[in-house]
Design brief:
single chain; alpha+beta; PmbA/TldD fold; five-stranded mixed barrel; 40% strand; globular
């Protein structure tokens, strides 16, 4: 692999090329298993390898890729990257510059994995899913049960013409359950540990065992049935307490994407791009209430957005984004950071694979915990709604106007959780919503969630990112029953 890196760099550097980097993935592996109603729904395993070559002139970037690790193919990819960069230079608006940062000379990063999920026999994985899915069927009303498992691993080598080089081996795993109950025309779904595939972590098989899927399945099944008889959520403004998993998604959609600096600078608009945040807002904008503290932390242990170095060789960093409600930072690359006059990149350039060029992506964008326990959050509510587990989401391409539905709601009456509510939906505008943040739960309410399906770019890229979030209390939020 190191020979391929050196070969790629030699082939990429030529007249007019001021920088080059090469990424070799050998191999990438993925596995997806699922059980639905007692039968296998998916048995998929994929392995692939390839090389991505990126170059820069003093005005433009070029990128090319190949899935063939033969030296000839790598040289051809490097030559194509050069031609792309030179062609793009003809329409560039001005010079291109990046921050001056030194990457690792011989770095190594490895996920903390006790049991490699790809070493666990498939029969053992399927036996766990079959038993967990069986336990979802606590009542004839549960018409559909799903149990799923996912794993990804990548061996990556990186080198740049500036002398940076590293090797990383990253492993991500996750699993989850979903029960769908039906009675007449009423359909209700309940998921665990959260929706859309469950929870995910940078870890090994031990994380899956820690989810205790078989132990929680019956509760999930019962809650899906209970929602069939629950009243519809009321309509009108009210105090809302969001559970950690729902607040994590809120951070992802209305903060994480909105503070990607390429969106703010209108460099990325192709895949639900741009942002309501303007370039002049950096360091000035009141994003939320003083209780709002957000960081982008690529050093967070176990996060899907954690790594040793990004795909420009920049070390993983903890970057303040919102401090006491004020926007103080953004997710950035070496190029965008230089445009803002910053000395350092945010280290957020990541590609989903060898066949994609790096983009600014979320790392682990975390809402920091406060001081109140969950019970203390509820004590401050005379009448309101507790919302948990996302069911649907919609947000515009500027990340400004949104509407989210959750699987379950519960009345809050005089500081106590009450009856179930079905089909709750809440909506708002990003700055007004975050400025209504009244209180944040403490570390006991905080959890680091994994999101395996964050989309961006054209050609599209699917990234795995992380979000730590506590429970949070918001005042005067518009709620209705779906």
């Amino acid at each position: 692999m190191e020979d391929l890196l050196r070969l790629g760099l030699r082939a990429a550097l030529a007249s007019g090329i001021v920088y080059a980097d090469v990424r070799v993935y050998a191999p990438e592996r993925s596995e997806h298993l699922s059980v639905r109603n007692g039968k296998a729904g998916a048995l998929a395993h994929a392995v692939r390898s390839g090389v991505g070559v990126r170059v820069r002139t003093d005005r433009s970037w070029g990128f090319a890729t190949t899935s063939d690790l033969a030296p000839r193919s790598v040289r051809e990819a490097a030559a194509l990257a050069r031609r792309v960069a030179r062609a793009a230079a003809r329409s560039a608006r001005g010079p291109l510059a990046v921050t001056s940062e030194t990457g690792p000379s011989d770095g190594e990063y490895r996920s903390d994995v006790r049991t490699d999920p790809f070493d666990v026999p498939r029969e053992r994985k399927m036996a766990l899913l079959i038993e967990a899915e069986r336990r979802l069927h606590v009542d004839p009303a549960v018409k559909s049960g799903i149990a799923s498992f996912n794993a990804w691993s990548e061996e990556k080598w990186f080198a740049s013409s500036e002398g940076a080089s590293y090797r990383s081996r990253i492993c991500h795993v996750g699993a989850g359950l979903s029960a769908t109950a039906i009675r007449g025309t009423e359909v209700q779904r309940r998921s665990g540990p959260t929706s859309f595939g469950g929870d995910f972590h940078q870890a090994g098989w031990e994380f899956i065992e820690g989810l205790r899927l078989t132990e929680t399945a019956e509760r999930i099944g019962r809650e899906s049935v209970g929602l069939l008889d629950a009243p519809t959520a009321p309509t009108g403004p009210t105090t809302v307490v969001l559970d950690s998993d729902q607040l994590a998604l809120q951070v992802h959609e209305s903060v994480g994407h909105a503070v990607e600096l390429d969106r703010i600078l209108a460099m990325e608009a192709g895949y639900a791009g741009t942002s309501w945040v303007g370039e002049k807002d950096l360091g000035q904008l009141t994003y939320g209430s003083p209780a709002m503290e957000v960081v982008a932390d690529a050093t967070e242990p176990g996060g899907l957005g954690s790594f040793g170095w990004d795909d420009e060789g920049v070390p993983a960093r903890r970057v303040p984004i919102v401090h006491e409600g004020r926007l103080v930072g953004a997710l950035s690359s070496r190029e965008t950071a230089r445009r803002e006059g910053w000395e350092r990149s945010g280290g957020a350039m990541r590609a989903s694979s060898y066949d994609r060029t790096p983009l600014i992506r979320m790392t682990n964008v975390d809402l920091q915990p406060g001081e109140l326990s969950f019970d203390e959050l509820l004590e401050g509510v005379d009448e309101g709604i507790f919302l948990s587990t996302n069911r649907s989401w919609s947000i515009d391409d500027r990340r400004l106007n949104f509407q989210f539905g959750t699987e379950v709601g519960r009345r809050i009456v005089r500081g106590e959780l009450g009856a179930l509510l079905r089909n709750p939906i809440y909506s708002g505008m990003t700055p007004e919503f975050w400025r209504s943040l009244d209180a944040v739960g403490n570390r006991s309410t905080w959890h680091l969630w994994g999101v395996p399906n964050c989309g961006k770019g054209q050609p599209g890229q699917v990234a795995r990112v992380g979000h730590g979030a506590p429970a949070g209390r918001f005042r005067a939020v518009q709620v209705r029953g779906g």
